[in-house]
Specification:
This protein is of the alpha+beta class. Helix content is 50%, strand content 16%. It has a 4-stranded antiparallel β-sheet with strand order 4-5-3-13. Strands 7-6-10-11 form a 4-stranded antiparallel β-sheet, with helices on one face. A hairpin with a 3-residue loop joins strand 4 and strand 5. The radius of gyration is 29 Å and the shape is elongated.
């Protein structure tokens, strides 16, 4: 079997997989008989997720998400306006920008990869969450990104269980409320929170979340016959290491509370002096460990925030506009396919097949990563289709030049691909570098749609390096082998 035949088999299998991912069956409430039969025979669930249970224990060992996320301009979502706490009156625009960055990291960690977070005025932050199905949960998640504290629970080891999950008063909360004025009829939010059960005073805040450098959920190394457990690794910024190290050194064997928005999340026992960081253990499940790590990473905001307003919004473009946009894209692709077939004939047919593979491969990658599709992201994808066609044109024009120079057919094909490759590679790589710059710019609040455009364009350019050379070459060599006799008598079939 020749190398081109092997490549053809690989491309056929890859294309079949991509088509399946790009067009999966969707079952909304009612399962079809075919899906139900497949689910019973292969432990599959009828949905847009491929879920496999290998050992039959009722837990999915492998989950493949094949749903497509859409942006706010296509599917609507939730718009949340955040107001800086009036207790803080000396923050700068830089502080507000850093707060917006923390909010963006928090909502993006929830899987909202195209969430838009931007500063409005001098004291507000606007958050747009596309495709949010549970507005209450989203609002609660954002609202919890207020004040993270590490609190002294010394001497309360026997009372920790009663305090976890409760709201308490801390010295940091009291300091933040000192300069605040309550509106008429408004009650002090600290009034109903628990104080220290012995002294009756607020609990002492050792360090706020501003002192955290990083936090992540990890599995502990296996020890003996015991199974590994989930724990949280955290790092402390250098400016806070002396204070945190001194406190943990003096409180070994005592609990230290992790408090978010006044609520005690956890109260682990201090096992050793922790200066630059440490681990938090507590028989966490994977979900609990990831949640706590997320709260530690982004729970600390330079400025406490409150929800000013929420609004559910519909799709900006509307269903009719989306339908027309899709139709325009389909018409454009058909025109390109027809041009390649008419102008380049047999090579154009090979390019058309490669372009179809390229399109389905992109759509499959968008779903598997996943990539949230907005109108700018779709624009980046359509531009990448143009670059894929451009690569094929470079190859075919080079082949025509070699044929006109008198080279035999096989030599002309090889020279055409070899000599066009450097141009395709360099042009794609230079554009990918620009996409990287656009992506970094898109990480600033309010510019996430730029990142979406850069991501889809870069994915298309990378895949084009495969399809424009390997896929097109394979199809063209197979077609030339099938029609070699016809080509020998009529070079016009190659568009030469």
């Amino acid at each position: 079997m020749s190398s081109h035949a092997r490549w053809l088999i690989f491309i056929a299998l890859l294309s079949a997989f991509c088509i399946w991912v790009a067009t999966p069956p969707a079952f909304k409430g009612v399962q079809s008989e075919a899906c139900a039969a497949a689910a019973d025979s292969a432990n599959l669930k009828c949905s847009e997720n491929l879920e496999l249970d290998f050992n039959g224990d009722g837990e999915y060992d492998f989950v493949l998400n094949i749903t497509q996320s859409l942006g706010l301009d296509l599917v609507g979502g939730l718009r949340v306006l955040l107001q800086a706490d009036t207790a803080i009156d000396n923050f700068t625009l830089e502080d507000l920008g850093e707060t917006a960055n923390n909010v963006a990291r928090r909502v993006n960690a929830l899987g909202l990869t195209e969430a838009t977070v931007q500063v409005q005025g001098r004291d507000r932050i606007l958050v747009e969450l596309p495709g949010v199905r549970d507005p209450a949960q989203a609002v609660a998640t954002i609202q919890r990104t207020a004040l993270l504290e590490f609190v002294d629970f010394g001497g309360l080891r026997n009372q920790v269980v009663d305090l976890v999950g409760r709201e308490i008063v801390t010295s940091e909360q009291v300091a933040l409320r000192q300069n605040a004025t309550l509106a008429e009829g408004e009650t002090d939010p600290l009034a109903d929170r628990r104080t220290h059960p012995v002294t009756g005073l607020p609990f002492r805040t050792v360090m706020t979340g501003a002192g955290l450098q990083a936090a992540s959920a990890v599995l502990s190394p296996p020890q003996g016959t015991g199974s590994p457990e989930w724990m949280i690794n955290f790092e402390v910024k250098e400016d806070f290491q002396d204070v945190f190290g001194s406190f943990t050194r003096d409180r070994i064997g005592e609990p230290m509370a992790i408090v978010l928005d006044g609520e005690v999340l956890s109260a682990p026992i201090i096992q050793a002096q922790l200066s630059s960081g440490g681990v938090i253990t507590g028989q966490f499940s994977e979900e609990e460990a990831n949640t706590l790590a997320l709260q530690l990473r982004s729970g600390a905001l330079p400025i406490p925030l409150r929800i000013e307003s929420t609004q559910e919004v519909g799709a900006t473009l509307g269903q009719e506009s989306v339908r027309l946009s899709v139709q325009a894209g389909v018409v454009g692709v058909i025109v390109v396919l027809a041009f390649m077939l008419i102008y380049y004939r047999l090579p154009g047919f090979a390019a058309d097949l490669a372009l179809v593979v390229f399109i389905f491969l992109n759509i499959a990658v968008f779903k598997l990563l996943p990539v949230t599709l907005t109108l700018p992201a779709i624009t980046g994808f359509l531009i990448s289709i143009g670059t894929a066609v451009d690569g094929n044109i470079l190859i075919f024009e080079r082949i025509k030049e070699e044929l006109r120079a008198g080279l035999p057919l096989d030599a002309a094909l090889k020279a055409g691909f070899d000599r066009a490759w450097t141009s395709i590679r360099d042009s794609n790589l230079s554009t990918i570098i620009i996409c990287g710059i656009l992506f970094m710019f898109g990480q600033t609040p309010g510019a996430s749609i730029v990142a979406g455009f850069a991501v889809t364009l870069a994915i298309g350019l990378v895949l084009n390096l495969f399809t424009a050379v390997i896929v097109t070459r394979t199809f063209l060599y197979i077609l030339v082998g099938l029609f070699r006799g016809t080509i020998s008598n009529n070079r016009a079939i190659l568009g030469a």
